């Protein structure tokens, strides 16, 4: 059997890599600042979702293969931590899958593919580390008239992700300039983030604190009504409006409960005693009567301690909520644990797992409630009220996200969190990478430069394939931004630009975007987060190599490192 036919068999058997590439193709329209949204229709339930990111797309589609589930888990893990970069992650997963399949077709062993791609990625990462711009230097280049007031400054430290031993503190960075550079087309959302930072600065915080940032999505008002407010803003039902009317402008007492607030709830790790039978001579001891007794006990506890506001991280029993309304006790469920901890610090309240644990010393003081605005879905009777819960020492800030289109609320909220995390990460890292494809162009340059000095022929081929993958990334980005009419035109532009820079001069990214109706001055002020990019690149390659190795072991029955490994890879 010829080498080509052996490689072809190996390629066909690596179905998982082909599936990764196919899934990644569906997310190409999400790359870049000009995202094209997609509607996802549930044929069985009739529901629909409007998505504009790879993370939301994978959440809403049916996973009919293990590799799709693995991709989704990888993306969601990245999204949970960094809230940005998932579109790049999925795109590169498809690119690296194509590189691996091409290498298999050429007859390369899995170990050669793994070593060469890892080395190629490290070449790119090292080049990016050297080219990253320090925020302090960026701030010094900023025109004085564009700076924020002098009191809006951040203290910055280098991230653990850098290998350099330089731990200098960056002072007086211009937050507005940095925020604009990493807004990535979401300037309205970034403006809300800046407003949130200003409010937190007034509370004497040294930086944007993500843990004390909350969102409150509201359907009805247009996007221009979105704003940032001090405190914890939450929507309460129309039935609780009378409670708000009674409590506002008073100094209130607060209790905090983690977990659900119901008779059946038990904390994580609780073990029920097995093989125990309850015997009683009372015929009325049913589940309903136990629940009623629990509700009465919980209610009396709140009344005896004069609790006015009860915040719960989980779900609250409906009957208990209804029982509290006539006595002007406000119960709010689904509160983030971070929010509970902040109120615990600012009010002196002690978090408890069960309401029966509440004592006088667990109750916090100094809470105030203010009615902000009432909302109605159809212009009729108000069905919800937005209120602000504050304490004297709290630095909690809430971004109220509004939209007249309910389906867009999730996307708007995602954009806000993405901007907030990008700004937070920028000042955590202390450095930024040049955006608008400048970093990817640098990667192509470095891969081409590294190829001639390599003795291993496999590595040379892989470097060229990876450079072609970056070329596809830039071409897709240009196509989505409307710079070119097709990918072929984009590739021609990139190739021409790289040839002009062969003399060692740095890539001039302005020339890449000049043909389109793009402000080239604004292009040079676009930046990307170092950690976000690096983690997305690494996760994408790690996933592809994991799938490649797993597929190979399933096909051959041989684990990596065994002596006969190379003999069976393509059989």
Automatic annotation (TrEMBL):
Record GO terms (molecular function): ATP binding
Cited InterPro entries: BBS12, Cpn60/GroEL/TCP-1, GroEL-like_apical_dom_sf, GROEL-like_equatorial_sf, TCP-1-like_intermed_sf
GO biological process: chaperone-mediated protein complex assembly; photoreceptor cell maintenance
One Pfam family per UniProt: Cpn60_TCP1
Domain of life of the source: Eukaryota
Record's protein name: Bardet-Biedl syndrome 12 protein-like protein
């Amino acid at each position: 059997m010829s080498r080509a036919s052996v490689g072809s068999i190996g390629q066909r058997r690596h179905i998982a890599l082909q599936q990764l590439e196919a899934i990644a193709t569906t997310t190409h329209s999400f790359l870049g600042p000009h995202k094209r949204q997609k509607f996802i229709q549930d044929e069985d339930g009739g529901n629909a979702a409007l998505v504009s990111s790879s993370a939301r797309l994978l959440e809403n589609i049916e996973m009919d293969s293990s590799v799709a589930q693995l991709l989704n888990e990888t993306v969601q893990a990245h999204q949970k931590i960094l809230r940005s970069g998932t579109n790049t992650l999925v795109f590169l997963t498809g690119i690296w899958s194509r590189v691996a399949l091409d290498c298999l077709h050429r007859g390369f062993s899995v170990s050669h593919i793994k070593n060469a791609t890892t080395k190629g990625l490290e070449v790119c990462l090292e080049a990016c580390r050297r080219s990253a711009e320090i925020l302090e230097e960026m701030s010094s280049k900023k025109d004085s008239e564009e700076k924020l007031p002098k009191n809006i400054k951040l203290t910055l430290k280098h991230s653990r992700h850098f290998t350099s031993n330089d731990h200098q503190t960056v002072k007086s960075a211009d937050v507005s300039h940095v925020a604009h550079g990493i807004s990535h087309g979401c300037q309205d959302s970034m403006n809300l983030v800046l407003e949130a930072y200003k409010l937190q600065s007034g509370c004497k915080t040294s930086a944007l604190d993500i843990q004390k940032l909350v969102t409150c999505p509201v359907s009805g008002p247009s996007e221009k009504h979105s704003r940032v407010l001090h405190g914890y803003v939450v929507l309460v039902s129309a039935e609780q409006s009378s409670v708000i009317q009674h409590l506002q402008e008073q100094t209130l007492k607060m209790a905090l409960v983690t977990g659900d607030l119901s008779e059946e709830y038990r904390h994580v790790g609780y073990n029920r005693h097995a093989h125990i039978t309850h015997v009683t001579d009372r015929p009325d001891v049913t589940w309903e009567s136990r629940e009623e007794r629990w509700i009465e006990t919980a209610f009396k506890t709140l009344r005896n301690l004069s609790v006015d506001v009860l915040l719960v991280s989980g779900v609250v029993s409906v009957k208990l909520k209804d029982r509290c309304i006539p006595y002007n006790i406000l119960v709010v469920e689904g509160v983030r644990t971070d929010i509970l901890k902040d109120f615990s610090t600012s009010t002196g309240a002690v978090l408890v797992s069960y309401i029966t644990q509440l004592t006088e010393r667990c109750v916090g003081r100094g809470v105030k409630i203010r009615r902000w605005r009432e909302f109605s879905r159809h212009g009729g009777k108000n069905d919800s009220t937005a209120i602000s819960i504050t304490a004297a020492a709290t630095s909690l800030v809430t971004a109220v996200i509004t939209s007249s289109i309910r389906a867009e609320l999730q996307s708007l909220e995602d954009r806000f969190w993405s901007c907030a995390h990008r700004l937070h990460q920028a000042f955590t890292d202390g450095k930024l990478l040049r955006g608008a494809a400048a970093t990817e162009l640098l990667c192509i340059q470095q891969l081409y430069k590294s190829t001639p000095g390599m003795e291993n022929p496999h590595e040379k081929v892989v470097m060229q394939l990876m450079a072609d993958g970056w070329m596809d990334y830039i071409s897709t980005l240009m196509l989505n931004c409307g710079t070119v009419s097709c990918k072929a035109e984009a590739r021609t532009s990139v190739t021409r630009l790289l040839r002009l820079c062969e003399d060692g001069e740095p890539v001039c990214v302005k020339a890449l975007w000049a043909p389109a109706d793009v402000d080239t001055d604004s292009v040079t002020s676009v930046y990307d987060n170092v950690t976000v990019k690096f983690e997305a690149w690494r996760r994408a390659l790690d996933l592809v190599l994991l799938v490649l190795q797993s597929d190979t072991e399933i096909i051959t029955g041989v684990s990596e490192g065994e002596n006969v490994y190379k003999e069976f890879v393509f059989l």
